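Hey, can you fold this?
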Amino acid sequence: MKLYRVNKLAKRGGMVVKQKNVLAASDQQAVAEAAESDDCPVCDVLHNGTLIGRID
């Protein structure tokens, strides 16, 4: 399992409103979990500070 950071954004490219950590087996799983979250209409998914996915 890897640790991912999900940043909820005010708007695409905007300010971070909320952050949460997610444990996932792969990049794809982390992005899918973020996309399924009601808390994430616009989010960036990062692993070790590198953007791996964006939901908008």
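Oh, and this one too while you're at it.
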Amino acid sequence: MTIAELHKIPLQALPKDVFSLPADAFVDAWAAAFNLAETDLSADERHDLAQAIRNGTNRMKVIDALRSAAPETTGKIGDFSAQVIRRPADQFALIESFARFAPDSDVAFLRYSFSKILGREPSDKERLAFEFDLRRGTTTREEVIKMIVGIARRDGRVSLWDTLAETGEAQAMQDDSSAARTMPAGLSYDLNGQETLIFVREVPGSGWMIGPDLLRQPVNVVDNGWKVSSGWLLVGPKRGFQAGPWRIQIDLVQELNAKLAIQLVANSGLDILQEVTIAGSFTGNLSTEIRAEHRFVELRVKVIDTGSETSWVRLRDISMVREVQS
């Protein structure tokens, strides 16, 4: 988006000095301008976008990310450059982003990593053990980050790590359940020689197959479909996909005036890989290209508010297939 394009968007009143506001106030001001409620943009997502600004992300890119979540957004916004190096630090830990923090202070590094991944300070014993091993050189910062992610997972938090490495380190991730490139059981398998990721698929006579590690609305079955409310319907899984061309397969039935927004994003929503709004029933494929720098990829399915308190949709198939390149 450019400054000129902002004038094409109907907005609520914005402060005249909006681009001079601190990061949090800037995000809140634009969220209000796009009529984003808490169901459209959570507090954690607002924090991520504000942190991205502090880490150097162009504010216009943040406006694009906010606009994409707006209820009024119906068209594709355009191409987004990758923000993997500057993605917000959170429980989805990019090794290189954490390891480079405070290179001269292991204590500051530990406090920062625990705060972002676990949401707390390290205990005295945790700090003492990690600092001692780092000082002796018996462990590395990269290994410490993985261990902190492991602590988060044992505490019941959703946490994963990834790396920019393409060889060696990446190969070692395959058997580590805390690594973002290890797909959870049941989500990734081969179908006719192609890698297929099932998000939702109707199984005749049995119900629905729903992929693990997905946030979703409760399944309320009515008339062989789901009774749903406006807002996010499915979100996930924030994993590392194989680079290359992919197809998003969609087969759904809904009322003629009902709308679903389908969005494929990476790096906390700063990179939008595919986006479309579906009105009424639909079956077809969306093509997208996943690059090596696209980390923590997630598919978002959103029920657009059309004035009805609840909507009905029958999701027969939402999946992704990696295209075999000849």
